[in-house]
Amino acid sequence: MEKKSKLTLGKIVERFSYGCGDFGCNIIYTAMSAFLMFYYTDYAGVSALAVGTIMMVSRIFDGISDIIMGVIVDRTKSRFGKARPWLLRMCIPFAVSGVLLFSVPTSWAATPKLVYVFITYNLVSTVIYTAINVPYSALNALMTQDPYERSVLSIFRNLLATAGTLIINMCTLPLVEYFGDNASAWTKTFCVLGLLAVIAFLINFFGTKERVKPAASEEGKVEDVPFATGIKALFRNKYWIMMTGMLALFFLMYSVNGGATVYYAKDILGDRNLVSTINGIFNVVQICSMFFIAMLVKKFGKRNVFSIGLVLNMIGILLLHFSGGAMVLIVVSSVIRGVGNACGGATMWAMVSDTIDYGEWKTGVRTEGLVNSACSFGYKIGNGIGSALLGLILEIGGYVGEAVAQTESALLSVEICFIWIPVAVYVIGLVIMKFYHLDSEFAGILEDLKNRAAK
Question: Is the pTM for the entire model greater than 0.85?
Fold first, then answer.
C-alpha cells in the first residue's frame, strides 16, 4: 500500500507532467481517428472498405499485444518503477512510426499499398502505441491511491489530451496545405508533430514519480502474479467489466464519429474547413471546462459527473444534426459537447484506476498493468470495430472520395456514422452507469486494504 496517498511535492508540475503523456499519445491517436481514413481514401488512393477491414483485423493483434504489455509492465522492475521506463524507451520509435503511417507510396499498385498500410498500421497500433500507452495508463494508479488526487490527475490527463487533440484538429490540414496539399505533405506534417510528441513524453517521464505498492510489499513479499490468476481476478471484478464495456463502446463511437467528422463537414455542411471550427470550439470549451470538473466530482462523484457528460453529449450532437448548417447552432452544439466530453474524459480513467483497488480488495490480486491493458484490449477492439464500421457504412452508402457530389445514400451513411451511432452509445452508457456504485463503496474498500497491510 502507498504510505502517503497524496501527491506532496510539486503537485501542479507533476499533474501537468502526467497529463503530457496523453498529449503525446493523442498526437497519433487523434490523427488516426480523425484523418487517417481521409488520408488513405483521398490522398493515398486506397479503398475505404479495404482499409476498414485491415483496421478491424489489426485490432485483434493489437488487443493481444495489450495483454502481453500489461504483463510486462507488472513484471518490470527498475529504479524508475514499473511504467515510467517504457515512456523513455518508446517515445522516439512512437514518433517515427507516426511518420511512416502517413507515408504510403502513392506510385505503388493497389495490393502493395495495402501491404504497406497493414504493416505500418500494425507497427503503430499493435507494437509501439501499445508499448507506450499501456504503461502510461497504469501510471495513474501507481502515483497515488487518493481518490480525489486520481480524479485531478485524470482531469489533467484529459486536459492535456484535449490540447493534443486540439492541435491535431486545428493544425493538421493547415500544415498539409502549407507543405503542398499532397501525399508527401502529410509525411512532412507528421515529422513536425512527431517531434512534439517526443518532447511531451520526456516531460511525462521526468516529471512524475511512482509511489503505490501492493499491500503485501509492506513485508517485502511481493511476487509476480501468474497470468491465469490475474485474468481470473479481472472477471471477478464487476466494476472493471463495466468500465471495459463502457470504454469499448466509447472508443467505437470515437472512431466512427471522429473519422466521419471531415466527411460530415465537407459533404453535409458543405465546407471541410468547418472541421477546424467544430473541433476547435469543442476542444477549447472542453479544456476550459476541465478547471471546474474537480469541484463537480467532489460534490456529485465520478459516476454522476460521467453520466451528466453523456446527456450533454447527446443533446449537443442532436442539436448539430438539426442545425440546418446554421453557424450559431453549430457553435452552440460544439460548446455543449465540449462540456459533456470534459465531464466524461475527466472521470473515465480515474474510474478505471478505482477498479484496481476494488479488484485487490475483492480478490487479493493487484495488477495495474493487466487491468489497464485488458481495458485497452477492450477499447481497441471497439476502436477497430468502429474503424471497420466507418469504412463498411461508407462503402455500403456508395461514398466515392473523388466524387464532386455524393449520392443521397452516401450522405445518409455519413450521418449514421457522425450522429446516430454516437447517440446509441450515449444511451447504452447511461444504462451501464445505473449499475456502477463504486464511488459510495470506495472509502470502505481503501480502509479495509490499509487494515490488511497493517496486519
Answer: no
